[in-house]
Write a structure and sequence with these properties.
- The chain has helices spanning 10-16, 21-29, 74-86, 112-121, 123-133, 135-139, 171-182, 214-217, 220-235, 237-257, 262-273, 307-311, 313-322, 327-350, 354-369, 377-385, 392-402; strands spanning 50-58, 61-68, 92-94, 101-108, 143-151, 156-164, 192-198, 205-213, 283-288, 291-299.
- By secondary structure, the chain is of the alpha+beta class.
- It folds into 4 domains: 5-37, no CATH class; 50-96 and 203-352, 3-hydroxy-3-methylglutaryl-coenzyme A Reductase, Chain A, domain 2; 101-201, Alpha-Beta Plaits; 356-402, Helicase, Ruva Protein, domain 3, CATH 1.10.8.660.
- Helix 9 crosses helix 14 (327-350) and helix 10 packs across helix 14 (327-350).
- The radius of gyration is 25 Å and the shape is globular.
- The N and C termini lie far apart (60 Å).
């Protein structure tokens, strides 16, 4: 009997695909026995460059932060923003008293007062069930913190479970507890839509703050432009979308490098940016005396143990590089990088020079695209930087001339 596709080896899967021998060989050479166990229908690894933010001060500690990203200039901008914020003593982190994931059991077509009354009068039963469902998280000091009913609409109700998952991101922990808790709603079974965690982790909302002396930004005029740009993004979702995308350039690069779910972090961040009914920038900047102050608040679900993190050596290496001891510490570092990234982008726009550094990195990518060797890169990039108009044809012609 023929194997199903998911039962094949990575090389057998490659044989089914429309690939030439060269492509198939390259994919084979980038296979990993470890990673083949992580996802379905595995064929090869897709490598993303990893750089480092050399030094950012977070709660008084100097940290080197790994960043995995394919976008040119992101790592350079993060280093630039961190250098500026370090001059003000670095970044301070404010955490909630206890961070927690939120799980939901969803109901339709029933009365809120009935669900709310049932939840209120059976608290002890729900806490007992949670402990029975996941005793291992209680041994680590975590577990169910609270349970409450929330009216979503006239006919929709969510019963929200706050669960401390300690240093694990906690998706599996939350979903395991929810499935057990559903059995306690037997009288409402016909009204249950399902149970699942939410990536809008408002109980994991972290705030970071920092400041820069105005003179280091290039003067008061640049600082005022940064504030004006930031205010513009509070009123215009078009501007806010671009500002937040730049912010996540830094945040998601660290989340990815540490084996965490950057999609969940971004989804929660964008929801948080819309909490007031309109999409806004996630950062706030203002001038006080001779300093530019910045603040970033964001719900962020990450872990330092469990799941894919424990299965990926590169993720563990990234955590070791930062000497991170807890998920809460990692949250603060990630948001600190986001604030630095945002500052660098706003300063570049306010100074009228966002393209200069960015395009130089783009020229490096273009040079590689047209076949430049490592020893040819700097000269070709230098020549491209002097031109007003650049494309692949121009870069290729310059490279050919260099080789004559």
């Amino acid at each position: 009997m023929a194997k199903k596709y998911y039962e094949l080896t990575p090389d057998e899967r490659l044989a089914f695909l429309n690939l030439n021998d060269s492509d198939r060989k390259e994919l084979h050479e980038n296979q990993s026995t470890n990673n083949a166990q992580i996802i379905e229908n595995y064929i090869s690894d897709f490598r993303v460059p990893m750089g480092v933010l050399k030094d950012i001060i977070v709660n008084g500690r100097h940290i080197s932060v790994p960043m995995a990203t394919e976008e040119p200039s992101v790592v350079a901008a993060a280093n630039n923003g961190a250098r500026l914020l370090n001059s003000g003593g670095g970044i301070s982190v404010l955490l909630p008293e206890r961070t927690a994931m939120i799980g939901q059991i969803l109901f339709v077509g029933c009365q809120f007062h009935e669900i709310n009354g049932y939840v209120t009068t059976h608290q002890e039963m729900f806490f007992k069930k949670a402990r029975q469902a996941k005793p291992s998280i209680y041994k680590r000091g975590g577990g169910l913190i609270s349970i409450k009913a929330r009216r979503v609409s006239d006919h929709e109700i969510s019963v929200d479970f706050e669960i401390d998952t300690k240093d694990a991101m906690g998706a599996n922990i939350v979903n395991t507890i929810l499935e057990a808790e559903m059995t306690l709603f037997a009288d409402f079974e016909s009204h249950i839509l399902g149970a699942i965690l939410t990536n809008y982790a408002t109980s994991q909302c972290v705030t970071v703050t920092g400041y820069v002396p105005v003179e280091l930004l290039g003067g008061l005029q640049v600082a005022e432009k940064i504030v004006a740009l930031n205010q513009f993004s509070k009123h215009d979702p078009y501007r806010a979308t671009t500002e937040n995308k730049g912010l996540f350039n830094g945040i998601s690069a660290v989340v990815l490098a540490t084996g965490n779910d950057w999609r969940a972090v971004e989804a929660g961040g964008h929801a948080f940016a819309s909490q007031n009914g309109t999409y806004q920038s996630l950062t706030t900047w203002h001038i006080q005396e001779d300093k530019l102050y910045g603040q970033l608040s964001l719900p962020i679900s990450v872990g330092t143990v469990g799941g894919v993190i424990s299965a990926m050596p590169q993720a563990k290496n990234a955590l070791h590089m930062m000497n991170v001891v807890s998920a809460d510490e990692l949250r603060g570092i990630i948001l600190a990088v986001g604030l630095a990234q945002n500052l660098a982008a706003l300063k570049a726009i306010a100074s009228g020079g966002i393209q200069r550094g960015h395009m130089r990195m783009q020229y490096r990518v273009l040079a590689l695209q047209v076949g430049a060797l490592p020893e040819e890169l700097e000269l070709l990039v230098s020549q491209l930087s002097k031109l007003k108009q650049v494309d692949a044809n121009i870069a290729s012609k310059l490279l050919m001339e260099m080789r004559k």
